[in-house]
Amino acid sequence: MSSPTSIDAFCIPSHPRYVVRRPYPELRYDPELLVGYDVERASWGYLVNRAACFQRQSFPRELSRLAPAVRIFCRFADQTVFIGTDIIECACCSRLIKECGNLIPGTHTETNRASCPDNCSCSCGAAARFPDGDKHQHHCNRGWPAGTGAGRTGGPFPCPGRVVLCLWRVLMSEISLFEYSLETVVLRLLKETVPRFSGAQLHTWFAGNGISERWRTVDYFVYRSLVNLRLISCIDLVGRTSEFARIFGIEFYHVLSRGSQYRVESLLGRTARAANFLLPSPSVAQRARQRAPEAIPLNLEPDSSLFVDGPVAVLDFQSLYPSVIIAYNYCYSTVLGRLTSLGRGEGNSFDLGCLSHWVPAGVIEVNLHT
């Protein structure tokens, strides 16, 4: 993956206005993946926390693929003023979203230079209309996913429609290291040495008068942003995960977050559907009414002084259910009900987990004697 020879940048006068205009590239290019090396403490999580400090609670929704239907109010001089409805209906925001296409060379978009920020009907118009420090915006979301964790796809904030990848957590399952800082991972995978400077040093360079010192800070963050893409390309994260998603029939993010049981259930569901069967989905009440297990297995510590002259079967979670249980521990009476019910002549109707099963009279007796 080659690095760009030049970059284009927007100059934004204040941090609140940067938070306001930050979702424009996502609305312009509509990416499926939002990648950050440490999403919880920096990157996208930091932007969401900063937006919350400026009372912009709709910021995660604007980053997502949901329609940014947000009613925006502004309190000024002890009076609440209705500013607008959403970003899409704003002429100024539409122009700025189109201008984001010029960030990538070769992308040509039509822009309307006649639009004036003062006529903006959304929050960026409020930022231009009132001086900083005299405004307080309040956002009322409509249709936001309810419940804790609703709409989350990998990040610490809800972002429906996009996959938020915390890259260092993904790399934990790929390589074995003592610590997973960006410098250590790049040295291991890309064989490059990455310098690390403190935030105070970077601020000193950027606030300096010399252009060369300011360039150091910009180059530092540009490199750390582009190296994420090189790491993804090095381990073939997108291609390999997409292939697994097609094979198992599950979503992209579930390949990275779910276990093997979820993949087995997906393959089982596809196989059952081809044979005109459906997998039951019991409710909470049905699960509560099912019978308790007859025995609970105990996990025992192995005896260190045990020596056996012969074959030894080592049972762990991965090899437990596909081999030992299916081959030895399941008897035919399991799929025909309990043995006590069969002995009392109640074999025609019995419970299988959360559901009831009925067998015509005489079928069970014939199968038991054959």
TrEMBL record:
Concerning Pfam families, the annotation shows: DNA_pol_B
Gene3D superfamilies for this protein? Palm domain of DNA polymerase, Ribonuclease H-like superfamily/Ribonuclease H
Its Gene Ontology cellular component terms are: nucleus; zeta DNA polymerase complex
What are the DNA-directed DNA polymerase family B multifunctional domain coordinates in residue numbering?
251-339
Single Gene Ontology BP annotation:
double-strand break repair via homologous recombination
Record EC number: 2.7.7.7
Q: Which domain of life is it from?
A: Eukaryota
Q: Does the keyword Cell membrane apply?
A: no
Q: Does the keyword Transferase apply?
A: yes
Name it: DNA-directed DNA polymerase
Give the enzyme's main class according to its UniProt record, as a single word. transferase
Q: Which UniProt keywords apply?
A: DNA-directed DNA polymerase, Nucleotidyltransferase, Transferase
GO terms of molecular function: DNA binding; DNA-directed DNA polymerase activity; nucleotide binding
Against SUPFAM superfamilies, the record matches this protein to: DNA/RNA polymerases (SSF56672), Ribonuclease H-like (SSF53098)
